């Protein structure tokens, strides 16, 4: 018999430090199973498809202390809805998107917490800044004062060894420190969103403050 959602969460909770936030990634996961995760203490839920997320928000509105995290690529026409409905945005992946979200946040009188998505290793299949480009854009990003820029997010390429994975996470952590030392008023760099079901322990070793776990809690998606 496979472990239940709550058993899996309890088992993971024993492995991770108390100051690391577990975000349950609930793409294609039923509301019933999300409620089971909630009953085990999970309060952070991550979605990457806007329409699916909005439906779930509606069905879970009785659980009013959920923190909703958006982790998918944000299309221009969906940016407003993302700002309206999510407390955290992990997938801010370009200066143009930052400036757009900043304008919308001013209009909507919202101040979302955001991560800058960075590619510390080349990966044509991922969105995000390459390191050099991100460093060039910092000054402009700092002007986006309606965005609460919390830190960096990364998703690593597939097929890395454990040593390569750890090194990439450490590179992300060092980049956050480098940015912090530049003392921009709005680039806090206090949070690191990195690590998924296959590599979260390595991410924690490298300083992750948030890990994004889906498959290891809910099983394979179809």
Tell me what the structure shows.
With 222 residues, the chain is of the alpha/beta class. It is built from nine helices and nine strands. Strands 1, 2, 3, 4, 5, 6, 7, 8 and 9 form a nine-stranded parallel β-sheet that branches. Helix 2 links the parallel strand 1 (21-25) and strand 2.
CATH level 4 superfamily: Alanine racemase
Main pleated-sheet profile: 9 strands, parallel
Give the tally of β-strands.
9
Cα shape: globular
Any idea what the radius of gyration is?
17 Å
Structurally, how many domains make up the residues?
A: 1
Strand content: 15-25%
In sequence order, what are the helices and strands, one letter per element?
HEHEHEHEHEEHEHEHEH
CATH architecture: Alpha-Beta Barrel
Helix content: 40-55%
Distance between the termini: 20 Å
CATH T-level topology: TIM Barrel
Structural class per helix/strand content? alpha/beta
Instruction: Report the average pLDDT across residues.
Output: 96
Number of helices: 9
- Give start-end ranges of low-pLDDT stretches: none
CATH class: Alpha Beta
